[in-house]
Design a protein that fits this description.
The protein is α+β, with helices and mostly antiparallel strands. Among the domains are: 7-151, Acyl-CoA dehydrogenase/oxidase, N-terminal domain (Butyryl-Coa Dehydrogenase, subunit A, domain 1), CATH 1.10.540; 156-274, Beta Barrel (Butyryl-CoA Dehydrogenase, subunit A, domain 2), CATH 2.40.110; 435-579. 58% of the residues lie in helices and 10% in strands. It has helices at 7-17, 20-26, 33-51, 55-61, 76-85, 104-117, 119-138, 141-153, 276-312, 336-368, 372-407, 419-427, 436-448, 454-472, 477-503, 506-540, 546-563, 566-575, 579-582, and strands at residues 64-66, 69-71, 157-161, 177-180, 186-196, 206-212, 225-230, 241-246, 257-270. The strands form 2 sheets. Strands 3, 4, 5, 6, 7, 8 and 9 form a 7-stranded mixed sheet that branches. A two-stranded antiparallel ribbon has the order 1-2. Strand 4 (177-180) and strand 5 (186-196) form a beta hairpin. 50% of the residues are buried. The structure holds flavin-adenine dinucleotide (FAD). Flavin-adenine dinucleotide binds next to strand 3, strand 5 and helix 13. Its cofactor is FAD.
Length: 591
């Protein structure tokens, strides 16, 4: 399949819904609409012509390990060289270290394109950006001076080494040890598994950020520290670490996933001793946002594949009689069920794109808005939205990829069409960076119960105002009324969850996945209503792009009529409570 960035829809969301140029002005960033559009066009060319063509082979070929060295699939090295040379790597990096300091609202669309073109290729650079963030916030001036510039440029890569065989979700269980040395450095010993980009041939040096325990560390998560452990030491010699094995996995085969052994490797503390998890948490929002974009990118790729096929594949006649009478059968896009699948893909994908850019705006404001109050408000909003973005978008990625397979019929199951690869590649996004179950728990426990529902209520208030505006004129009364009702239902449901969890802590885990899904469907409904309002206004204003705006109105209607009802099922399931989950003894699940 040929991926082409959905530039028109990206411009719709960035400019027409969220005024990215105004946002940049507010943050004091010199980036006008034309410049951003130019960047997106160039990004579309790079991702469509350079990265996307590598994706299929990367799946077939995978990564190879020989003599401790990892070889990435054919073409990755050259594409990565171009990625660095053209400044794509440094897009979001801090300007003090050679980065371009672009806001997330501007970079998110490029990152979505990269995820869609090749998730495997993107993983190497995505992890580096996360490591830059952690180092920039928590590293000592000496470490920042020595490591940030080549990491920001992409000349060196970064990794995040958290997971161990016995410590995945529960990092309190990790065992890797750090032994202090007289010169202030540390010797790191232990084994990490599942480390993305732990070894690769794209960059000369790889900077590992490793969680480990100091000898006198308290037990549990309060005894974890973060260390910078480079593959090549400042003098150029190899550090005592290496890739012991590559994992054989379901998808993203072009991304190396490594067992990393640290055998007394030299490292330096990042941040305070025993504060490693807190250091990691400060970058969590950004990392989870990026994984959300992975789901979105995959969904877009699957939608494009499904749509192209549905327009070409000839099978059966339309229920109302032949549409393409001169051909042996009609294209399958005439069939209502095929349209159901395509419109589900479109409504979910474009809906997530709106929520992505709305969330990117909050992340930017959290870091750079003028005034503490504005920054703190945006931080609370971003914190509420991030688990939804991570979990819902990646669930959407998997659903839309599966619909892609379904649209191709049996051919979807065959490798050459690319749909089954998207489904395999996207499956990991629901698992790493905190499984989606853990995201849901985070939403309920830390975000909702954390403030008793205050931030969620603020968000509902803001969205309700927009709904009022939509209901005031034009042809969107009925949709606006339905969305308004859902928003109040969301508020009431949140109140119920807060209360239920106070009586029974099991409720937190029992309701969380359904509460997250319910929240996401209602949020998307509110955004689709805004999109419909904008489309209606453009058509009323005589826009020449009638096809584009009418399609927006149709998709909004479809979302409201055919997707939003899913929220009801999640609400009902949630109200079923914890008892029906917890009453059955573990020994009695099967006999
Ligand atoms: C391809 C790939 C790349 C990865 N890249 C990296 C990387 O670069 N760096 C890194 O450090 N790690 C990485 N990981 C590891 C990944 O983040 C973990 O696999 C993930 O966090 C889950 O941990 P686990 O596999 O040990 O599952 P477990 O923690 O054992 O979880 C098993 C199941 O139990 C559930 N569960 C666990 N605890 C709870 C709870 N308290 N409440 C409810 N449910 C719970 C989980 O949701 C899950 O369904 C990668 C993994 C893969 C497969």
């Amino acid at each position: 399949m040929n991926y082409q960035a959905p530039l028109r829809d990206m411009r719709f969301v960035l400019h027409e819904l969220f005024d990215v140029a105004g946002h940049c002005r507010q943050l004091g960033i010199d980036l006008d609409r034309d410049t951003l559009d130019g960047i997106l066009e160039e990004a579309a060319r790079f991702t469509g012509e350079v990265v996307a063509p590598l994706n299929r082979n990367s799946d077939e070929q995978g990564c190879q390990l020989a003599g401790g060295e990892v070889t990435t699939p054919d073409g990755f090295r050259d594409a990565y060289r171009q990625y660095v040379a053209h400044g794509w790597a440094s897009m979001t990096g801090p300007q003090a270290y050679g980065g371009q300091g672009l806001p997330q609202m501007a970079s998110a669309s490029f990152h979505e394109m990269l995820m869609a073109a090749s998730l495997s290729f993107r993983i190497y650079s995505g992890l580096t950006e996360g490591a830059v963030l952690a180092l920039h916030r928590h590293g000592s001036p000496a470490l920042q001076q020595a490591y940030l510039a080549p990491m920001v440029s992409g000349e060196w890569a970064g990794t995040m080494c958290l997971t161990e065989p016995q410590a995945g979700t529960d990092l309190a269980l990790l065992r890797t040890r750090a032994q202090p040395q007289v010169d202030g450095s540390y010797r790191i010993t232990g084994s990490k598994i599942f480390i993305s980009g732990g070894e690769q041939d794209l960059t000369d040096n790889i900077i590992h950020l490793v969680l480990a325990r100091l000898p006198d560390a308290p037990a549990g998560v309060r005894g974890i520290s973060l260390f910078l452990v480079p593959k090549l030491l400042p003098g150029g010699e190899r550090n005592a670490l290496g890739c012991g094995a590559l994992e054989h996995k379901m998808g993203i085969k072009g991304a190396s996933t490594c067992v990393m052994n640290f055998d007394g490797a030299l490292g330096w503390l990042v941040g305070e001793a025993n504060q490693g998890l807190a250091c990691m948490f400060t970058m969590m929002n950004d990392a989870r946002f990026q994984v959300g974009l992975q789901g979105l990118g995959i969904a877009e790729a699957a939608f494009q594949g499904g749509l192209a096929y549905a327009r070409e594949r000839l099978q059966s006649r339309a229920l109302t009689g032949p549409v393409a009478a001169d051909r042996p059968a009609d294209p399958i896009i005439v069939h209502p069920d095929v349209r159901r699948m395509l419109l589900t893909q479109k409504a979910l994908t474009e809906g997530c794109r709106m929520l992505a850019i709305y969330t990117a705006r909050q992340l930017d404001l959290e870091h750079a808005a003028a005034g503490d109050q504005a920054r703190q408000g945006a931080a609370r909003r971003a914190a509420l939205l991030i688990p939804i973005v991570k979990a819902f978008f990646t669930d959407v990625g998997q659903e839309v990829a599966s619909l892609g397979v379904q649209l191709y019929g049996g051919h979807g199951y065959i490798r050459e069409w690319g749909m089954e690869q998207l489904m395999r590649d996207s499956r990991i996004t629901q698992l790493y960076e905190g499984t989606n179950g853990i995201q849901a728990l985070d939403l309920v426990r830390r975000k909702l119960l954390g403030d008793g529902g205050a931030e969620l209520n603020l968000l509902v208030d803001e969205l309700a105002l927009q709904v009022e505006a939509a209901g005031a004129g034009g042809g969107l009364h009925a949709m606006a009324a339905a969305v308004g009702q859902r928003l109040e239902e969301w508020r009431a449901l949140a109140g119920h969850v807060v209360e239920a969890c106070q009586h029974d802590p099991q409720e937190m885990g029992a309701v969380s996945v359904d509460f997250l899904a319910y929240s996401a469907y209602v949020l998307l409904a509110a955004l689709w209503l805004q999109a419909a309002m904008r489309a209606e206004a453009a058509l009323a204003g005589g826009s020449a792009e009638t096809g584009f705006y009418r399609a927006k109105l149709h998709a909004a209607q479809f979302y409201w009529r055919r997707v939003l009802p899913r929220a009801t099922a999640h609400r009902e399931a949630l109200l079923g409570g914890a008892d029906c989950l917890m009453a059955l003894p573990a020994s009695d699940f099967a006999f």
